[in-house]
Amino acid sequence: MSSKGTADTPSEADHGSPGPPPAGEAVIEVRDIGKSYGSVIALRDVTTSVRAGQVTCVLGDNGAGKSTFIKILAGAHQHTSGEFLVDGEPQRMSSPRDALSMGIATVYQDLAVVSLMPVWRNFFLGSEVTKGVGPLRRLDTAAMKSITKSEMQAMGIDLRDVDQPIGTLSGGERQCVAIARAVYFGARVLILDEPTAALGVRQSGVVLKYIAKARDRGLGVVFITHNPHHAFPVGDRFMLLRRGRSMGDFAKDEVSQDELVNMMAGGSELAEISSELSSDMGPASPVAKQMEADVQHK
What we know:
The chain is α/β, with parallel strands linked by helices. It has helices at residues 66-73, 96-101, 119-123, 141-154, 171-184, 201-216, 228-234, 257-265, 267-281, 286-297, and strands spanning 26-37, 40-51, 55-59, 81-86, 89-90, 104-107, 130-131, 138-139, 189-193, 220-225, 237-242, 245-251.
């Protein structure tokens, strides 16, 4: 499947592999990892871990290095410095299939689902269940429908009908189908690329609920986002990227949501802008007053 598929997941033959490791055990570790494209340094000296039964949130604005980081974890790019370990063993993956074979599944932001196909067809797209042999081999439609329904229910997703076109689902529901699919096909680590970026408040809440469900089933989850308000409720660890560098890697009890917001927004930069606005428009300007209030709040 392409990197823009519903999810990059192991093939049907890989299903039934050993489940996630014990909660808290490191599945992925990156140590001082970096990536260069010629003379351009996209990522430098990044260190963090992804542990079973935990959500690691990777936060940063556009250009922070999130895309490069996710591509290294997903096997699409190789790191050029540092160490990348899976289950404590150094790895240098050459393709996304290498990542899939290790149980690392990626759900990309742009879900390339086939909108007019039913939910169950998209769930098994590229990994269809068949029955019979030789020229009598055919799709086992009943089995795929049954599995899709049971896996949706196991994740707490209540679909009216698995025969309905997936295009009739909301954006949040389609993300949840992709998450359930990755779990079914044996993922131990689930990488989610900005899953709430294009969603409204209610749909974002639905996705966050199923991120927590995946964590509770023992998966290590990497939640890529630029929104600390989405990250904090579900996250166990938080790594902030800015211009390809890590600005910190914190456990949940080491940082508050306000501190995450402040680090993401750049408190000093916001104060400087507020000062400039006050100077240009006068201290009575409503915009300047709001900016000053924001800085004081942070």
